[in-house]
Amino acid sequence: MNGGPMDETLYALCLSTDPAVSSAVVAMLARIPSFAVTARELDYQLGPVELNDVREAHLAIVILADDPSTGLAVIEEVHKNAPATQVLAVAANDRHETIVGALRAGADEFLPLPLDPNALLKVCIKVSALRRAAKPNGGSQHAQVWVAYGAKGGLGVTTLVANLGIALQAAGRRTVLLDLDLHSGDLALFLNLNPGYTLRDIVTTKRLDTVFLQGTMIRHRSGLELIAAPVPLPGEGPLALTSEQTLAVLKLLDTTHQVVLIDTTSAPLDATRAALTNAERIFLVTELTLPALRASLRAVAWLQEEGVEGALEVVVNKYANRSWEVSPAEAAKTLGVPIRALLPRDDAAVYTAVNSGLPLEEVKGGTALQRAIAALVGGEEAPRPESPVLKGFRRLFSAIERGA
């Protein structure tokens, strides 16, 4: 594996209470391909760590003992006094609480012992990339923020977000889903993912930076990434995610992804407001029923008060083209906003997809709905769903032709 050419040497500091372990780590660093790593060993049990030593280091490797408390205190000290130094925590104990404890103390990465040389190489590559990005003109990519918002529950917002995210990733746009439905976020469930970290870990960490945030993401097999919402415990309210914390997350994602696609709750939480006021596109999801349109009308008024109506796009979900539905033209007139897309109703495909954690494109009958969702990626008009009458005639004629 090659990390690419290096303009300068990486300086690493190995902090440990076990000379044998630290010597082995230093020897491994010396063999990292494509990187010239100069490393020193310090025993943090012999006395306080010299801050000048830490500040000069690009990477501080803190090896945690069986009792990690002293090592965690060292990580906090490094984080506090040398914020530019990346911290790698290493331990033989790789239990969940040890990893979370290290990350909360300020570590950027955690690796278990014995060290995997490839994993150590990846850490060096990240340190190098972060140093380059910190230089003037080091990075120029900026992410678009897209928000899906439903004025009431049950409108299919999460289904839209999950499958639109997959469509974005398939179109070659690196996408991360941010689940800001802090009441009952289910994006992980819809994608059949079991995240080890959630927004709760991000809120409680003492060191929120790009590397830590990347470590909290879980990757779908499509390449799509997810920052999951925490599941509230019984009797517990939603996570108190502030506007400032939400903006800090969006700022970090701005240079690592091309699209940040956000699922929200209808409740006017601070996190929802922060997402909406920073969005390039807001998909207001509704149905052609009076209750849904009435709730959506209130949402449009609220969004206008927030000053974000210019980013608003109405997406009609579960469109059946039936006589009992409000017509799309009447709905657009009522809301005062043009309808951007009509997503066909396909309960069987949606239920199958949700219950199996599969994308719509992988379940029987889900292709038409997924195609309509994917049309939102490029901004083109979504294909208009076929009339049930025409669809019935088409099936009848196909059956006649097969029998002829």
Describe, in plain words, how this protein is organized in 3D:
The chain is of the alpha/beta class. Helices cover 42% and strands 18% of the residues. The protein is built from 16 helices and 13 strands. The strands form two sheets. Strands 8-9-7-10-6-11-12-13 form an eight-stranded mixed sheet, with helices on both faces. It has a five-stranded parallel sheet with strand order 2-1-3-4-5, sandwiched between helices. Helix 6 (157-170) packs across helix 15 (367-378) and helix 10 (243-253) packs across helix 11. The protein is elongated and about 80 Å long. The termini are far apart.
Structural class call reads alpha/beta
Shape: elongated
Please tell me the total number of domains: 2
CATH architectural grouping of the largest domain: 3-Layer(aba) Sandwich
Our Rg estimate from Cα atoms comes to 25 Å
Beta-strand content bin: 15-25%
Helicity level: 40-55%
Q: Please summarize the sheet with the most strands.
A: 8 strands, mixed
User: For this structure, what is the CATH homologous superfamily of the largest domain?
Assistant: P-loop containing nucleotide triphosphate hydrolases
CATH class of the largest domain: Alpha Beta
Strand order of the largest sheet: 8-9-7-10-6-11-12-13
Rounded to the nearest angstrom, the distance between the terminal CA atoms is 61 Å
CATH level 3 topology of the largest domain: Rossmann fold
Total helices: the number is 16
Point out poorly predicted stretches: 1-8, 135-140, 385-401
DSSP, total strands: 13
